Amino acid sequence: EAAAAGGGRCGPGAALRWCISGALCAAFLGLGMSIAVLGPTFPNLAANVGKNVSDIYYIFVGRSLGYLGGSVIGGGLFDCMNASLLLALSMFATTAGLYGIPWCKDSLLLTVLMSVIGASMGVLDTGGNVLVLNTWRAESGPHLQALHFSFAAGAFVAPILAKMALGGSESKELPVAEKTNQSVLKSVPTASAASATPALQDHLEADFLWSYVVIGTYLLFVSIFFFILCSKGSSARDKSKNSVQKGSFAKYHSALIALLFVFFLFYVGAEVTYGSYIFTYAIVFAEMKENEAAALNSVFWGTFAACRGAAIFGAAFLYPGTMILLSLLASAVSSFALAFFAHFRALLWVGSAVYGASMATVFPSGISWIEQYTVVQGKSASLFVVGAALGEMCIPAVVGYLQGRFHHIPVIMYAAFACSAMTVVLFPVMYKLAISPRESDLKEVRDSETQKALLSNSRLTEDEEDEEDEEDVREWNEADFEVIEMNDKLKNPLTDASHKISGDSPAQVSLQPHLDDDVLGNSPVVAGGSPGRQNGNIDWEKSD
After folding, report:
1. End-to-end CA distance of the chain
2. Which residues are listed as membrane-spanning (predicted)?
3. Deepest in the core among 171, 217, 366, 417, taking most CB within 10 A?
């Protein structure tokens, strides 16, 4: 754990981190299968509870509400309990719900089971993203891309699994008449269970039972692996990392989280709306055949999944912000072409492929990007998932309502362009808020400026002291010069006086040596001196 916390690539800590990433990818593969399996088995569920397909639409509402509630509750629980344990319990609850669905004969009980499954999947979606961030920190980009690629792969595998369960046995066991009745049941949305024979109904139950049991068993094994990780105490390290990171929130943390909530709402809403209605658009507006429309739908989701897989490697050398910017530009250009030039058949195919590719990396890259500027805790991640879930619920419903009101207008294309425009506008605003300096940074800047000011003041004081010393030196030098000048002035009158004495009468001059001799002869100092010295003194006085 210490090696993992230190970011080492070798040793048991690094191996534990890779085990966590692998387990999360396996869990998200099951999450994608659990969500996508409902579509192809929806008529079978209606027949199993004895209802029309149009009468059990509320199971989608129940699952969506459970997903929202699980995201919110899971975000709070993730901040205060063991992450691996929470994820293991959520997958165990999903397994229980999937096991119970095939034997559920009541529509209300089916809605409750769907709500439980939705709540557990919301916990898994929220906790998985946060656990990857806490495990890999700055290196989380490729792992987040791998996580969401696993989800896309699961959503791709689930319809195939359901088709194998339903199609494989029906060709072997059903008589021709029953196969005809089943094809009618699957093709007509309002078909009721009463239109099918009891033998056909029992066989349908056995068919779609296997798809739910297989997915549930798979998630059961993954949950056991998370229980093992829980016993290893892998989440203790994650909590310690969260505690260390407190205080590194962005200056506008709440505003960033709120804007990213709205950003994911429009992004996921556009993704689900286009994937849900492109088949209908191709038939109604592009006048395609059903197999062509299905192929167009597959192109969208195929490029979506392929680019999520490629993004695993792209995230290793591209910044999350760069990936988001490229995706938003591609999304804006392709949605603009689809909104105004989709009547060209070739442009419809190319635009759908580019639009699917541009939507692939936005969600995981958005989470990686925001983590660079602020702390992403469980509550923050739950808001991201809630925003995505609300977009998945609301925007397709609004588009469907408007398309029903305005039959001759391709509302789906205009909605895709409007959502792309909103994301293009929101991202620069979020970036501006993200790069705003934090209070701690401003305090550090102010402290450094104060230190610089103090240093400059000390330097100024030293310079002033040096200048004062120089002035004192100059004053002393001037005083010395004045003393020298005064001495010169005193010497000059003495020199003049001596010249005057030398220019007096010869009698005075002749008397002077005698006086000097008397004085010098009476001097005790000179008396002990040499005669040469005395003569030198006499000569000096005579010269004066």
Report:
1. 105
2. 15-36, 56-78, 85-102, 108-134, 146-166, 209-231, 252-279, 324-342, 348-370, 382-402, 408-431
3. 366
